[in-house]
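Example S7 (structure tokens).
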């Protein structure tokens, strides 16, 4: 079974993915894979043509702040960048699925619906979290400003839109136990 795990920035997707991994699922992290794609020579060339050589601080480091400032204020640039990066992510995720046949596979991605990664999934889990809590988490994690975070949130589908496309929900509101929620969903998926 192939299950998507999504949620907006700061909802705690990565924490939930780690819980599923501990429970025995195989996890493909689309967002981490996307970061690696930037350094594939053919993709790097296209990124530089689209956004400029300032995207790279050196041979192994992205200028994430520069890229974010460019793409999260221009939806056309964001789409063009996704069109460069995400076909390679999809190819790698298919290879991952093939390598782990007959296992519960979790595909973690912030942009699951936005880039069409949901099309080959059996189920989708959405991680939700209150807006202020998300902003607080990302400010601590990345040192981003409130405005930068809100721009990223605006570039993603809203929770309301994602809920319409989702089978299961985990609430990361610091009230309900994440471990309990993940375990219950893991049991359901293994008996589906």
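Recovered sequence:
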């Amino acid at each position: 079974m192939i299950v998507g795990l999504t949620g907006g920035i700061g909802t705690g997707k990565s924490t939930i993915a780690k819980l599923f991994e501990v429970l025995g699922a195989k996890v493909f992290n689309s967002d981490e894979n996307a970061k690696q794609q930037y350094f594939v020579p053919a993709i790097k060339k296209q990124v530089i043509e689209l956004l400029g050589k300032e995207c790279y601080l050196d041979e192994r480091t992205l200028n994430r702040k520069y890229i974010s400032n460019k793409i999260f204020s221009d939806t056309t640039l964001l789409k063009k960048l996704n069109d460069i990066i995400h076909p390679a992510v999809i190819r790698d995720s298919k290879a991952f699925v093939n390598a782990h046949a007959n296992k519960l596979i979790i595909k973690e991605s912030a942009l699951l619906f936005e880039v069409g990664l949901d099309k080959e999934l059996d189920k989708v889990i959405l991680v939700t979290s209150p807006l202020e809590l998300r902003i607080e988490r990302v400010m601590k994690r990345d040192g981003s400003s409130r405005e930068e975070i809100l721009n990223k949130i605006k570039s993603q589908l809203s929770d309301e839109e994602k809920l319409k496309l989702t089978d299961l929900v985990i609430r990361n509101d610091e009230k309900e136990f994440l471990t309990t929620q993940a375990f219950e969903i893991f049991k359901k998926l293994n008996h589906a």
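Notes on this example. The longest strand covers residues 123-128.
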